[in-house]
């Protein structure tokens, strides 16, 4: 092959090399943009999970307080163990606080019921954006996510239970305890996690 032929081949190869390099760079930047979006979505989901769980845990604390105060003073104290006897007054505040800790804001919130168990759902939006990328608009795009958390009683109420007499409970973790409404003092209840579990709904 002559020198002129070699120069001609190099001349034809250079534009192809430049084009392929440009394509590869575009693909790399596109993957980076998708990675940014995925990271924002994951952060948003974590914030939504935390907000919903915080709301449910706040309601569980309310349940524990109500149960403790009703034992010995009300014949309906067993109803608190079903997990339904709460107003959820502080649930939204707890959700807002946890969302803020995760650089997000609760944009919608409400009570929920999943498989008969009460809880709360939260929808959040991140305060940060996806960030600058090769895809237009991502610099002002916020991620959103939703989550639902429920409160599930862990101890069975015996069918023959009489709220005016001592009641023995068996719980799902193998623990058992007895509550005597005539001999009950504040602080006698087991830990909240023994009576109620709080977890994200499936």
User: What is the strand arrangement across the widest sheet?
Assistant: 1-2-3-7
Average the pLDDT over all residues and give the rounded result.
81
Number of strands: 7
SSE pattern, N- to C-terminal: HHEEEEEEHE
User: Using only CA atoms, what is the Rg?
Assistant: 29 Å
Estimate the helix proportion, in percent.
40-55%
How many angstroms separate the termini? 70 Å
List low-confidence stretches. none
What count of helical segments does DSSP give? Answer: 3
The total number of structural domains is: 1
The portion of residues forming beta strands comes to: 25-35%
The geometry reads as elongated
Give the class from helix and strand content and strand pairing. alpha+beta
What does the main sheet amount to? Answer: 4 strands, antiparallel
């Amino acid at each position: 092959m002559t020198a002129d032929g070699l120069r001609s081949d190099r001349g034809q190869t250079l534009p192809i090399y430049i084009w392929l390099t440009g394509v590869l760079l575009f693909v790399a930047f596109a993957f980076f943009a998708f990675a940014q979006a995925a990271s924002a979505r994951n952060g948003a989901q974590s914030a939504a999970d935390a907000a919903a769980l915080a709301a449910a845990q706040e309601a569980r604390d309310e349940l524990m307080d109500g149960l403790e105060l009703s034992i010995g003073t009300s014949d309906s104290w067993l109803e608190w163990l079903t997990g339904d006897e709460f107003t959820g007054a502080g649930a939204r505040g707890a959700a807002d606080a946890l969302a803020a800790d995760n650089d997000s804001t609760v944009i919608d919130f409400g009570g929920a019921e999943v498989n008969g168990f009460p809880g709360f759902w939260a929808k959040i939006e991140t305060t940060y954006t996806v960030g600058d990328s090769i895809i237009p608009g991502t610099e002002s795009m916020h991620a959103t996510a939703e989550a639902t958390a429920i409160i599930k009683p862990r101890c069975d109420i015996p069918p023959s239970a009489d709220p005016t007499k001592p009641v023995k409970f068996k719980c799902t973790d193998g623990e058992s305890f007895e509550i005597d409404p005539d001999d009950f003092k504040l602080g006698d209840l087991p830990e909240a996690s023994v009576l109620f579990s709080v977890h994200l709904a499936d």
